[in-house]
Amino acid sequence: MYLEAEDEKILAGEYGETRRKMMEILVALGKVFGAEKMVPITSAQVAGASYKTIGEWGLEWIRSLDARVAVPTVLNPIGMSREGWREMGIDEDFAAKQLEVIDAYRRLGIKLECTCTPYYLNITRYGDHLAWSESSAVSYANSVIGARTNREGGPSALAAAIIGKTPYYGLHVWENRMPQVIIEVEGADALHPDQYGALGYIAGKEVGNRIPLFRGIRPNRDQLKALGAAMAATGAVALYHVEGITPESRVLSERGGDFSALETIAISVSDVQALYGGDPVDAVAIGCPHCSEDELDAIASLLKGKKVVKPLFVFAARGVMEANRAAVATIEKSGARVWADTCMVVSPAMERFDAIMVNSGKALAYVPNMCGARSRIGTLEECIAEAVSKT
Known about the structure:
Oligomer: single chain
Strand content: 15-25%
Number of strands: 15
Structural class: alpha/beta
CATH class of the largest domain: Alpha Beta
Low-confidence stretches: none
Helix content: 40-55%
Number of domains: 3
């Protein structure tokens, strides 16, 4: 793999041991995947931020680093709200360790926005090269924005953040971004606006790690977010196209792309709707991925004048909450809580429940293993109805 002179110096240790280690990680990764060179990145998003997932050894590794990031970098959700962890019911020992993790990342110059939706906070443009590691963020960046990132692990994303470059392979290369399978959505006119996460839940199982091209649907940005997040959870989909909607689908069409020979998978809306319904739950959780401003508005509208009788957790990026304080105030007036920094999947706060209702295909897939609870999916309206008083 070709390295510029400055990269060679970093690898030789001329800029310190931490940068040498980080460059070593990137070079090894590039060699494994046959990268011909490194490419500069505009931002990074680092997973491995919750103490629940990285534990003591992960914390010790982060503490051992002494360089600062070279590009704007944010974290994935951590295991608790930084200010409200006591109200969440987080154990003091866990909280102490989680705050140590945060402090270790702060020393590296990482912005302490702990979110799976970094695209709401930093300007990310079509064609930008990134090093993002959270699966739903990767899917959104590649598919909805048309930026380019592989699905990085926490260490490789951090290495790229410190060096400011990543190996040029995989989804950074245009030729590797072509559709590999067609998905026809049968009966798409009957698909509820909140059922794109459930559609992705099914589609991910069907396509695995291939790049699908959807036909027959016209989702908006929040629906695209839900679709991609679920496919990344039940499969390993890091990029998808929606005909006539996502930016690269239009580029492919303009360049005369012919995908008639690809396998076509049909998914019926009746199969999607069969995922809904189920047994009673102990709690309701919304915001996996983190809510947009529009989603906070929708939740607030449904909760206005009502009171919750079951715990209702809503998760969003801190910056998004600050930009829509009115909606947050309305939601919390009902007795629900809007939490920054964390989410239902990586927080031990959700482990006390036996069954959790979600509006997300991603959460439907992850809650059983990550929280030890049964998961049930509903539309946003159904989730709110489950949480509020019936009187």
